[in-house]
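Q: Structure tokens for this one, please.
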Amino acid sequence: MNLANGRHYLAIPGPSVTPDRVLRAMHKPAPNIYGGPLLDTVASIVEDLKAVARTRHSATIYISNGHGMWEAALANTVRAGDKVLSLVTGHFGEGWSKVAQAVGLQVEVLNSDLSSTFDLAKIAEVLSADKSHEIKALLTTHVDTSSSVKNDLYAVRKILDDLGHPALLMADCIASMGCDRFEMDDWGIDVALASSQKGLMVPPGLAFLFFNEKAAEARAKLGTISPYWDWVPRATPQAFYQYFDGTAPTHHLFGLREALDMLVLEEGVENAWARHETLARAVWAAFDAWSQGGESWMMIDDLKKRSHAVTAARLDGPNGTALRDYLTEQLGVTLGIGLGMAPSGTPEWHSYFRVGHMGHVNAHMVLGTLGAIETGLCALNIEHTAGGLSAAAAVCAGVQDRAAFSASGSAASNAESCCSDPAEARMQRS
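A: Here is the predicted structure, written as tokens:
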């Protein structure tokens, strides 16, 4: 019997679930792009984007994805031949490094282990040795969507400040914006980039660059750059079309306005951060329970270094792919592939998977995903300890004593898990 019919649930780390009201907001006739309400709508969007990034400085909108913002950030701050330092903690940090190399920059890469964050001592060592300040910018990821590691950007800023190094601090916040706490101004981030399809709950197609006065000064020294990437007319448009260097992405803007209503005006950014933190802890509790007695399945051991938006995990052998396939084909839930943890096509690649819990997610969506994973573990006879779903439910219920929670009500069925013999479990309870 197949139980996948019905609304499919996409539990990948982007594109995230688009709220129905965002889809409805997009489903309307095309507007006038030369005057009328659209002009005021875009102005309000820019202000609310600043609220999400926690900046009083400039916000710009591009018809692009995050890869485009890697290039746009570089195009506005450095020129071919300049040197940048790229701090890599996963696949997407590597991706930004490759873009920097492709546009003619000298790129020094500091790779960290895929299960850990920046090596702050090594960063300080490299910057201390750069006496002539050849390094013009640091390329960082706040959360690398592949490894699910969350990096301490404020610690990097402190290193720069303590050394008096003038390099720009750039942050890829594509996976974290609207999900994990991010304070652009308070943390001293000079350039931040994000996109629409993750925490901002809008289909792929829009991306955003935020920059402060220091970054604006770097742009002013470059002279002429590609008109499409240039953030100056986008940040200070003299005519409406300059927001987008051409025709406005009208229906994406309708959706973005609705999403920002939900995130900024209704829930509030800090409340959204708190929601993501609790739901992430529920996911972690489930994984901790399933892997009890053995090595943790999660790639990041330190809780403080885990993203609240995505969790990367590993199972033995090819079980990562087997679990993903079973959930998609039999239960109607799609998990994310492992990305950058092992070379594609190798046996090791099939061990990894990711769970997205970003954007438009609530308790029943996360618990439903975890229930599907637990079902898949049982159906495929993947070795695990029962009780993951109960542990997650305890977190969502705000219960500190998980053992007591599991022993109460319907949660008492730990002894009668899908991996137990039901008759034997009933005898144990009696």
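A few notes: The chain has a mean pLDDT of 93. The longest helix spans residues 269-290.
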